[in-house]
Amino acid sequence: MTAAQPSHAPHTSVPDAPHPLDNPALASLAGPHAHFAERRGRVLRYPVDVSPWLALPDDPDARDWADVAALAGPGTELALAASEAVAPDGWESTFHVEGVQLVDDGIRAAHDPEAVRLGPDDVPEMLDLVARTRPGPFLPRTVEMGTYLGIRRGGALVAMAGERLRPPGYTEISAVCTDPDFRGQGLGGRLVLAVSAGIRERGEIPILHTGAQNTGAIRLYENLGFRLRKYTAFVGLRVPEWMTGEPGQPSAPVPVSS
What we know:
Blueprint: H1 24-29, E1 38-40, E2 43-45, E3 53-55, H2 62-72, E4 77-80, E5 92-104, E6 116-118, H3 123-133, E7 148-153, E8 156-163, E9 170-178, H4 187-201, E10 205-211, H5 215-224, E11 226-238
Parallel strand pairs: 3-4, 9-10
Antiparallel strand pairs: 1-2, 2-3, 4-11, 5-10, 5-11, 6-7, 7-8, 8-9
């Protein structure tokens, strides 16, 4: 009599969960920034006075693009952050910026005694500094996305940096800029390290995005202790005038992911 052979269930692989940094705007709006989220179907976006970024699922289909049109409106320009989505035929491309995503790899995060917390009352000065230095999108309510720190000289705001996207477990550092008259003093690097210190204290990991052609900024961030994680792109699209979408879910907050 032979012993029974053990039976084995057929092997089934479980697909890996998507990494939050692979679609950071979606991960933010479905997670820590859910209180900002406007949605239709699987499409999410920030209020237009907070951030320009709209987020698509990883596998957008025709219904998702119809929901984009319904949410944004025909003829509206929209922006996709660090997205791999390819728009259907008929959608106008308004910009395409090759970028890089950098992640903390042992940065020397440290609070800065000269850095001050910036808030809503500082927005006019912040908008003025951004207009002169063009570090990337910054709108009247962007300051609500997280902590913003600045350095003042003679009472005037001359440098700032702050927090933008918040995929679970991570926070993006953004709006790093310095008045041209005060460059070369290391103020931007100091503020990046100071913002990073606050992120680390929450148990999160600092990340950054910048243009792939901005080699000076990339070199600075790598010297501070960031490393390249991946190449990506920032894309602007215009909704076709003829496309109005279909009735879908009304805009509503998205529950925070666990």
